[in-house]
Amino acid sequence: MEDGQEFLLEEEKTNANKENKRKNEMSDANENEKGEKDMSVMKGKKVNDVEKKRVRDERLEVKRDVSKKTDSIVLKQTVNRKKERKIRLKELQQLQNSKIMLNVGGCKMETSQITLSKDPESLFAKTIESSEHCCSTNNVIFIDRDPTHMRFILNYLCYNGSMPEAIIPRDRGNLTDILHEAEYYNLKGLSSILWKRLNLLLEWGEV
């Protein structure tokens, strides 16, 4: 009996050792698996950190590009404004140096050589070049003509050959009178504008 008991005890001990070994192996496997998972998580986190850094760097680069472009636009606008101011100042100086008294039928209006020369084919521009059509003395130009619509004509020249719609007359009488003056002064652009308005009045049945 003692031998049998010893055998059983030895077998139980062996089985216990095997079980402990198995548990240890399972524990090691679990630890390894956990370690691999932790490594995987760490790698994933590292990849995410790298990706986040890349995105941040790209956004910073975009912001820098936008800032550079904005600075460039602002600089160009500043330079353009300075150029425009210089041009305007030069024009004002020229205007001061080229004042002309326009005497039309006894009605005196002060203007400038620049304004009268806006349309190079006009009678005004030709008059600046020579005194063939009228007398010019001491920057005074006399034209023997009805002055009624002269201010409208000067406005046309001041607007660089165009006229706001609100300023153009809507009645046939004034349009026809101004048209005669425009043709006399050889202002072809103004004549064209007036003819268009007259044709519109015809279409609207207001003539």
TrEMBL record:
Entries under SUPFAM superfamilies matching the protein: POZ domain
Matches recorded under Pfam families: BTB_2
InterPro entries per UniProt: BACURD1-3, BTB/POZ_dom, SKP1/BTB/POZ_sf, T1-type_BTB
Comp. bias regions, Basic and acidic residues: 10-52
Chain spans, region Disordered: 1-52
Domain BTB: 98-202
Listed name of the protein: BTB domain-containing protein
UniProt lineage: Eukaryota, Metazoa, Spiralia, Lophotrochozoa, Mollusca
